[in-house]
Amino acid sequence: MATIARAVTGALRLQGKVAVITGAASGIGEETAKTFVAHGAKVIIADIQDAAGEKLARELGGPDTARFIHCDVSQEEDVAAAVDLSVSAYGGLHVMFNNAGVLVPGCPLEETSMVEFDRSYGVLLKGAVMGVKHAARVMKPMQTGSIITTASVAAHIAGPSMAYTTLKHALLGLTRYAAWELRDFNIRANTISPGAICTPIMKDVPKFFLEQMQASSFFPKMKTSVSHKIAGPDSIANAALFLASDDSAYVSGEDLAVDGSHMLQPGDPLREA
Ligand SMILES: NC(=O)c1ccc[n+]([C@@H]2O[C@H](COP(=O)([O-])OP(=O)(O)OC[C@H]3O[C@@H](n4cnc5c(N)ncnc54)[C@H](O)[C@@H]3O)[C@@H](O)[C@H]2O)c1
């Protein structure tokens, strides 16, 4: 896909840029790392999956082009180290992609485990906050940068769990605030809201939610929407490429839905069965 996109535009859209991508060992982050490198970027693959991250870094050309760092985004020193590696290895940071995510199984509200909530909070929201914080630390002196955060359709409507819905909603606020505060430093901040994307995280979608979705007309409708199917991670990687590149130089504080029109479904698709 990256090859096709490059062939269509005829240009390397991230030549000379350096990106940190969290959650880059799998799914959307992995596909985005491949796309960014295909467009000339150097990337830091930041993830907790060491073997997969190291393997991807080798596939993408090794230390001259891509480096893996063990990074648990819920730990500030890990996030700071990933950002610092972009500077020490490649001379700066132009793109911060806060993408790492977990989907802790949902349950009725009254049975919410605050331990599980805190785990989601650490990765989905605190991890992104620290990504913005440390990206700003390095990008401000450079007077340039693009911060991208993976939100979700669950940042706009009810998603598969209370924690996921609540924390994904908060990413829109974080991004709008960052876009506002960093505007004078030529640093942009945007979110991408994927719909259903075929990646390993889908195995964690709560069974009751999947059953409700399957029982409703949601899936058939997806097939007749613009996406024709549940999309692959390349759909999000290409959106990230746009937001990372200078093609989106005047776009900041925005959310880009990449959901095959999911959020335009009339009524409540979960209650139509
Ligand atoms: N797949 C979808 O349908 C979908 C829809 C909307 C939003 N999203 C979001 O997209 C993002 C990427 O998810 P994906 O679909 O590629 O799933 P994925 O499971 O393939 O990738 C998630 C990655 O995050 C990493 N990760 C988990 N906890 C981490 C931590 N503490 N520190 C660092 N890395 C950690 C995992 O190791 C994994 O590599 C997530 O933020 C997810 O919420 C996915």
Question: Could you explain how this protein is built, in words?
Answer:
The chain has 273 residues and is of the alpha/beta class. It has nine helices and seven strands; from the N terminus they run αβαβαβαβαβαβαααβ. The protein has a seven-stranded parallel beta sheet, with helices on both faces. The protein is globular. The model has no long low-confidence stretch (mean pLDDT 90). Nicotinamide-adenine-dinucleotide (NAD) binds next to α2.
Which helices and strands, and how do they pair?
Blueprint lengths: L1 H8 L8 E5 L4 H12 L3 E6 L2 H10 L6 E5 L5 H15 L4 E4 L15 H29 L2 E6 L11 H20 L5 E8 L12 H9 L2 H7 L9 H11 L10 E4 L15
Parallel strand pairs: 1-2, 1-4, 2-3, 4-5, 5-6, 6-7
Helix pairs in contact: 2-9, 4-5, 5-6
Bound molecules: nicotinamide-adenine-dinucleotide.
Nicotinamide-adenine-dinucleotide binds next to helix 2.
